[in-house]
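Dear support,

I submitted the protein below through the web form. The confirmation email said the job was done, but the results page showed an empty box. After a refresh the structure appeared. I'm attaching both so you can tell me whether what I see now is the final result or a partial one.
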Amino acid sequence: MSYATLAELKDALSVASTDTSSDTYLQAALDATDQLINNWCERPAGFVATSQTRYYTAQASDLCMVDDFVSITTLATDDAGDGTYSTVWSATDYVKMPRNAAVDGEPYDRLELNNQITRTFPVVKNGVKLIANFGYASSVPAAVKAAALTQCGAIWFSRSAPSGVVGSADLGGIMRLSRALHPEAQVLLEPYRKRNGLAV
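What the results page shows now:
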């Protein structure tokens, strides 16, 4: 699922809903923009939570940093270092952090031990296996959707931009299109940007 729908993009570009001549191109732009946003924000799991299996290396015996997630299905560890992940943890063995994430509408991004147990995370490479709903939330944040529409608009208008330049002096100025994420999209996405993708 794209962060913005084809119908939303066509409306933003003032393309008639009945005009389907560019639908394939526009959908490709939407799909490519999703990946561009994920990469720029350092969120490999994206923003819409989906069930995935990912592997992590614990930072300490009581701490494992992970990618954004909303809920956990299974946490298992490879205590013997043999790649079998035979130790399956109970939901009461660990604490999803930050504790107030759900209240604040944010994802969790790390696991800490419950102080009442003696079990520890194995500090071995890829020693933690996590099956969870990875992503930011169950729905796309408004700023992310707006950034997707902005970026797709830049892609759309670049088709008619000779040498990467749009506009004219007569129309109030010119702008050179960037090879990077659109500046307005960057502003919208800055609060969501991370710089520590962790899954292998």
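Response: this is the final, complete result; the empty box was a page-load delay. The chain has a mean pLDDT of 87.
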